Amino acid sequence: MRPAPRISHTSTRFRTPLLSLSTLCLCLLLTACQNSEPEQARSEAETIELIQDDVVAVQTGDSVSKTAFTGTIRAVQHSSIQAQVTATASAVNAQVGQRVNKGQVLVRLNNQDNAARLAQARANLASTQAQANQARVMMERKRRLLNQGFISKVEYEQSQVDYRAQLENVRAQQANVDIAEKADRDGTILSPISGVITQRQVEPGQTVSAGQTLFEIVNPDRLEIQAKLPSDQQSALKVGQKIEYKIQGNPAQLTATLSRVSPIADLASRQIEFFATPNESINSLSIGAFVEGNIVSSNSISGQLIPLDTIQDIQNKPYVWAIRQNKIVRVDIHVLEQRYSDNTAIVSGLQAGDLVSRVKFSPQNEQQPVSISQTAENASG
After folding, report:
1. Which domains does the chain have, with CATH numbers?
2. What is the pLDDT of residue 374?
3. Which of 33, 174, 191, 206 is least crowded, fewest Cβ atoms below 10 Å from its Cβ?
């Protein structure tokens, strides 16, 4: 008899675990193959969508530097008239808004004391003039007597001293008359310039004091711009420079010529005052109105014009994000001029056809493709 075969269970015991291990390795291998795809490739495949307002076309040309300022319209000729004596206003001959001529009587003051003093001074002058004439006649008579030997030389010299003393008295009395005449003239107040009354602070019958302001007069035919500029912008202040400006409440663009510049800066504000003569006629109602304008430089700068707020890191290494060949690129630029008044910068370093992005990107976005929609609605659709 042949012995019965021995049955081994070794292969059956380990076959199932090996099959499971092979399946697990296959899954891990597939997962590893999927994870090996670079994240950068997926990122580059994504297209960034922008709208037309997000980009600005680069403009090339000449730009004129402009320095912004604020100021007011003022009259070149203006006068504040004060009373020189204390008296009562007997007549007031001018009203607010009335045009007056130089030398026209504005107010008459009733000052009887000054009139009396003038009369007294004139009387004293006449008396001293008579005494001086008498002394002169006496001196001439004694000179003839001296020549004839009837008097001594001492007597003649004494007559000369008396005559000179009388002449000094005449000069003193003439000075008193001049003072009294001025005081009398101060009772009649005349307009020192031709212009228009802007303020009146006196009425008939009112008693005014010496130094009190009675009228304000301006000449509306000669107006100018008065403004200030920080001292660090003094290079823009040159006599003859063109100025563009607008008056508050008037949309018209006007021009002027810089006419005068203060030789020193204000110690408190560190600003330099300057004046400009308008080239167009200005209504007198604009006196005191607010003015905004620019001093236009006579020199121009050639370069590329882009919005100032699109420049990144402008203080250290300025650059912009641009769209070049439908991809995002970072472009280093050189800033030639900054104009904060109209948010404009003049730069170099860009290429023709570049579009400067208003949107700020990160370095990971560089070289990503870009699509630009015409409107925000198209972009959202």
Report:
1. 48-58+311-380 (2.40.420), 68-76+222-298 (2.40.30.170), 77-109+187-221 (2.40.50.100), 112-184 (1.10.287.470)
2. 73
3. 33
